[in-house]
Amino acid sequence: MLSLQNISKSFQTDRIETIALSDINLHVNKGEFVSVMGPSGCGKSTLLNIMGLLDQPSSGEVSIDETPITSYKDKQITGLRSQKIGFIFQSFHLIHDLKVLDNVELPLLYRKMSAKERKALAITALEKVGLSARIHHYPTQLSGGQQQRVAIARAIVGKPEILLADEPTGNLDSHMGSEIMSLLESLHQQDNTTIVMVTHDEEMAKRTQRTIRVFDGQLI
Amino acid sequence: MLSNYIITAWKVFLRRKFFTFINLFGISITLMVLVVTSTIADNYFYPAGPEKNVDNFRTINRLLVTNDEENLTSVGRLGYKFIKDNVFRLQTPELISINSGTRTRAIFHEGLKRELLIKKTDSNFWRILDFDFIQGRAYSIDEFEAGDKVAVINKRTQLALFADKSAIDQQINIENQVFTIIGVVENVPIVEATALADVWLPYTTNASTAYQQETTGDWVTLLYHSNPDIIKDVNTEFVNLLENDVQLDKSSGFSIAIAGAYSKLEQLSRELIADDKSHETHTGLVISLMIGLTVAFMLLPSINMINLNVSRMMERSSEIGVRRAFGATKLQLLMQFIVESILLTLVGGIIGILLSVFALYLIDVKGLIPHAHFSFNLRVLLIGLVLIFIFGLVSGVYPAYRMSRLHPIAALKGNN
Q: I need a labelling partner for A90 at 20 to 30 A (CA). Which of A3, A142, B37, B241 fits?
């Protein structure tokens, strides 16, 4: 499904070069639920960004469905992200100017689809996360857990094959965090969605099928 | 996609009411000032009153005479003798009119003192300028040549002196002479200085004929041709005549005369950047200055709006990151922000135009610019629309371009 071969990533600043990832080889199977763990600054988020095609590796090759995408141009990569990948962020990143329904519809704006279809799909996604009664609320009118549910609805509305979650429970208390984790588990089981989740929480990681550990930019 | 951009923009405006208000305020007030100024300038250059055939005539209203050593110089309006000896030799105009500068004179009517603007003219004055007669008529060439004591007054004077009664055949005492009123015309806007007066009299009624011997004096000349393309050339003929064959009274000591027959724009340019010793009109420079001032006036709110837009978009960097992550291309983001900016400018523009109409109405009703009838015409509307478009582009495109180039990860981190 998702494969990284010899991936390295370094950041160049004025004086020094920081190596974030070094020679990473990783394969995530279709329908797999994988967690990524490691201390802060070890390169977990960079790894997730490269998997999500938000960032490009300094060297190595990323393949999706056996197709290398290294030579893809920005527009092709954007199209691939739109069709195949959904993102869940630690701080939700909901757009506060838009209502819940509009936030969830957002990924569909960049696909050829009628407003009616968009709305129907967004409502279905919100039903899945148990928030269909809040479609006309603004994000700031919701609790942290509810906001993350909206973010999950936004991530799944386009029925992506891969869901990338960067510490989705990091800003929530343990109860809310557990609820969100249950939601991800049910999405994984019901829709066979491939999920890669970065977490600091061993308990959450235990609930996934496989845990990848990163230290100093390398898999251990 | 466009409808999505518009809907999103609309939602953002409604949600960020203070920002929307500040932006709309800036755009509409700037535009109102520009449109009102443009309308006044438009009325000046394209008059709606008696000077409406402005393209058909040129004005000579200033003369410099000097001697060979240039140690004896006189500058001012034209003298009657100079006009008769020189201007009347021109071949280009079909009609030439001599009329005086406008003077304020106190008159007494039914025991009340009134101050009126008096202008003395010939009969050609009425043929060249297109006055709107409410009652009666202008004085004929016969009445003019005979020195008949007849007068034309404007509506304001009629109302002040005779209220609701007809002014025709009524008498008016000016400078110890009694004139019979034969015509009433609509008030002349103050921007039409060539035609402007409250009372017009034949100059042949002057008590003295001493003015007929003057080289410089208080006279203005209008040169008319029914074909605007022909009258354009009159200045060249006049300047050639003055340079090669000027007729000046030897006893006056003057030997050189410098003057020109100018359009309204040329006259304004010369008044602003005057050098009486040159024929140069500097119209190009004055137009550039006007454009420069307009740009400068728009620049300040534009920079302000660019600043406001950039900081507002910085606040929205998380949104930009999310949109990029979920499949928005750079072009789609650029378009979204440009649509937001143009839509905001458009709404601000419409408010600005409505405010301009209201401001022009106030200027009209309160008579801030006497007798001027400022209406919102198609030309000013087009200028307004162009200004709105430029404003929208200037203040919206740069911030939109900057934000669309943000890397999604940097945007998500709020690291701009």
A: A3
**Position of tokens 């869901």?**
A163
Residues of A in contact with B12 (CB under 8 A): 97
Q: Which residues contact B410 (CB under 8 A, 6 or more apart)?
A: B317, B321, B416
Quote the tokens at residue A71.
Answer: 């030579």
Joined tokens for residue A149: 């549910």
* Model confidence pLDDT, tens digit, residues A126-164: 998 888 899 999 999 999 889 988 999 999 999 899 999
Kindly list the averaged pLDDT for each block of 10 residues, start to end, along chain B of length 416. 80 81 85 83 83 93 89 90 94 95 88 90 96 95 95 94 90 91 92 92 92 92 95 92 89 88 86 74 82 80 78 82 90 86 85 88 76 71 77 78 83 71
Distance between CA B334 and CA B308 in Å, rounded? 17
State the ipTM, two decimals.
0.92
Give strand pairing partners of B105: B116
Handedness of CA A200, A202, A204, A207 (dihedral sign): positive
B184 touches A at CB < 8 Å: no
B334 touches chain A (CB under 8 A): no
Cβ partners under 8 Å of residue B174, min gap 6: B105, B107, B116, B118, B151, B199, B201
**Which candidate, B230, B287, B203, B220, places its Cα nearest to that of B260?**
B220
Vertex B204 angle, CA B199 and B208, to 5°: 105
- For B103-146, what is each residue's pLDDT tens digit? 999 888 887 888 999 999 999 999 999 999 999 999 999 999 99
- Contact list in A for residue B319 (CB cut-off 8 A) is 93, 95, 97
Contact A93 B15 (CB under 8 A): no
The C-alpha angle A25, A30, A33, rounded to 5 degrees, equals 80
d(CA B242, CA B253): 16
| Euclidean distance between CA atoms B212 and B82, whole angstroms | 9
The pTM for the full model equals 0.68
Model pLDDT for residues B157-211, shown as the tens digit of each residue: 999 999 888 999 999 999 889 999 999 999 998 888 899 999 999 999 998 889 9
> How many CB atoms are closer than 10 A to CB B310?
17
Q: Which two tokens stand for residue B282?
A: 């500097």
Superfamily of the domain at A2-219: P-loop containing nucleotide triphosphate hydrolases (3.40.50.300)
What are the residue boundaries of the structural domains of chain A, listed by start? 2-219
Write the single-letter amino acid at A10. S
CA-derived radius of gyration, chain A? 17
Coil, strand or helix at A170: coil
Where in A32-130 does DSSP place strands (E)?
33-37, 59-64, 67-68, 85-88
- Closest-CA residue to A52 (of A27, A100, A86, A3): A86
Helix axes B17-45, B283-315, angle to 10 degrees: 170
Q: Which of A78, A95, A99 sits opposite B327 (nearest CB)?
A: A78
